[in-house]
Amino acid sequence: INVCTQRSTRYVSAISAARGLHKSALDAAERPTPEETVTSSFGRFIQSVQPRHLSPTVLQRSKRMVLDSIGVGLLGSTTDVFELALQHCQHMYAPDDVSFVYGRQGMKLSPTLAAFVNGVAAHSMDFDDTWHPATHPSGAVLPALLAISDMLHNNSKPSGLDFLTAFNVGIEIQGRLMRFSNEAQNIPKRFHPPSVVGTLGSAAACACLLSLDRSQCSNALAIAASLAGAPMANAATQSKPLHIGNASRLGLEAALLASRGLEASPLVLDAVPGVAGFSAFYEDYAPHPISSLEEDEHSFLIEMQDIAFKRFPAHLGMHWIADAAAVVHKTLIGLKGGSISPNLVQDILLRVPLSKYINRPFPETEHQARHSFQFNACTALLDGEVTVQSFQPEALLRPELHALLSRVRLEHPHDNPANFNIMYGEVEVTLVSGDVLRGRCDTFYGHWRNPLSQESLQKKFCSNAGAVLSNERVERLIEAVEGLDHLDDCKPVLAQLQ
Amino acid sequence: MPLGSFTESFGAAVSSLNTSHLTDEVIRRSKRMILDTLGVGLLGTSTPVFNTVLQCSQRQQALEDSKVWGRPGLSLPPQYAAFVNGVAVHSMDFDDTWHPATHPSGAVLPAVLALAETLPVKPSGLELLLAFNVGIEVQGRLLRFSKEAHNIPKRFHPPAVVGVMGSVAATAKLLGLSAAQSIAALAIACSSAGAPMANAATQTKPLHMGNAARGGLEATQLALLSLEGNTQILDLESGFGAFYPDYVPHPLAEVTPTSHYRWVLEDQNIAQKRFPAHLGMHWVADAAIEARAKFLDKCPNADLSQIKKITLRVPTSRYVDCPLPVSEHQARHSFQFNCCTALLDGEVTVESFSKSQMNRSALKEMLLKVQLENPQDNHSSFEKMYCEIAVETTQGEMFTARCNTFYGHWRKPLSHEDLVRKFRANASTVLRAEVVEGIIYTVDHLDTNQDCSMLWSYMHFNNTFE
Question: Can you give the residue ranges of the MmgE/PrpD C-terminal domain (chain A) (predicted)?
């Protein structure tokens, strides 16, 4: 009888009666200090964050991200994979005439499908932004937010600040989630990060823009968790861009489902032994709640950790090796003048981190080429730079490139880990004449330690967006995004993309 | 083995298997699965979660739509029809369970039917059966690539992992994809696989099934548009292996037009549930029913509140250990709840999970008397687990019972009569008698029928809408 009484007191405690928690959840919830769960702290954060919480640095950095992401998406609308994804959506779904599609004037799709194809566009050339810990945060969030903005009635479009707030919530959530695991600090091996944190980032951003209450915000995250996670093996294939497209689409779906009352695990972000939630995607998982916006000084992660924008469309690791090879190229030009002939070169040694999926001696497709140390090094050796054009079929097939590729070997020094914060790239070219030329890059131009100037970023945008939009629209977009935090509603941005 | 060869063998098998490879036993078992799944799906169309996903999906339209079960006049693009119908099938945890553990049919059947409906030339019943079985087979094979898969899952919900692969294989088969396209489809589908266990025992769990069905169909469509993925997807640890800590793939046997093919379903039968709850609950219910019978046998007019203490000896499984469930989803995943319901009523039924039944004071009082024990020899595996119950009364008497194999388990399958009875009970909540009998007849004759399009037409009725 003693046992029964003790147990009945325990079971009928306020927490369990009100929430009917799972046993393991009961244990988790009945710690001495009445802590909020990690999951609910996230829900609370999303719901309570306001524009006033965005510092000038955060505003400035996130506007840069918005601009870059739109430009990259517009360029990406010229790719095969984008066309394929678009056809797929159109065959299966008649136009829902609500949300715009990058680079297809007048064409509309339903919001989730627009988020999907525009997300595919953003990542189609691996040209989109990269953060630390590693993921491509903006492409998962922006398409969904733009799609929702199109969906909302003309009289209730979000203000520029509301839009930026939701965008930053989506970025912040991704950053927070990645800090729950040490494994996330290194170049990924199992799950492609955008498909893991990107989906929840999109759900969070959409929940914020749709003004869901805090329990709906938590549920949106939990529902999104069941839609997250794609294996790394599909990176460097044509399917990779769909990881971002799906992250954006499914995050939006999760928010919409949550808005209709669908419920999911209230402990999805917490570490519950024996029942994996978000922890399913990591070997080592240690979550922390987000601090309250009322009590503590909340700092957005983007403020403390800036982002990298790419100068050419390839995996981030390629930028180090390209800059290192460019140094050697310049030296060679100085020595020999004119263009580089492969006959001069006896041996090319690359000192790079160990990472199977960016080690491709003879890439055959453009996707593989964007993920090949060897290809990017040799291209930069030949041309002095890597550009969008470097991945065109003609460029891939150049005989002089192949000649150089066959002379490349890799070394993986112990002090060069597969980590975007620490890695470096070194190129050592041994000439037939016996001379040895070296180039090294510790921080490429565009990395968060050496960010692109506003001029360089706008130049990249003009080049990308100009591939599909008129000069006038390109200029207006730059202006609209630059002044986003002062716009009463975001129509000026949307109008140029319709 | 050369890299890529496991994946290749899957692509080859999926494209080469044909109707002549279907054995009688496989046909018999799969027809039972189809009937059970349809009934469970129809019943599921009355759930709130089904309504929610339906509302969300309705903003999509298409040139060719597929029928939504239990919603006359409502059609959706095939992926979305597969999605909502898949949600219906798993909405009450009433659908079939296999070993190693997954719910195979709900990921495959909705996708196959939704796709079949859009084809200009409708497949014959045998072709439908073939596609269905390819989808089941691929799931069974993939589950055998990991030892961890043999136990009650902890990290990823199996239908979300293998279910989407089953759906893509089945739909690829139905559309006649080449081996190379099948490989691409498998790879694309893999990027949609995986959902964490934490959402099981919540309202979101049925979406795992719906999304598996949807994702597989979508992957097939993308492969047809020539999208490519990693051709070694099933070989790599960074591919399908990402979902398991111990991943050891094996190739599928070579399939020639005249060879005999050994289907997993032939060697390993399936469990069909008698009531809508997690499979583990069925052992508990059968043991509790037996103990109750012994109790009432001894004391015919006994008052069940005379029970002082109930000990349940069950395997360790955190997500079905729920002492005080609040939602119906939790109740379906609670050893304690199912035990007490069985003790009180002598059975567990669909009604047992209704609000009124769940709120009974007698039930709530009894729940406080339950204690779980996890004996070392009680493995968290649907192949090995048992349930032992010990009921102690205030008079000091003890009634015990043990269930090793519940009725409906693959070792003790439901009789044909009981399976059809379950279908009738489920389908009748939504369909008129003639339509119910029509489905039973059509499925029974699936292997000999050239035109089975009435199947999705039958599923499209609803007697409450007439």
Answer: 312-485
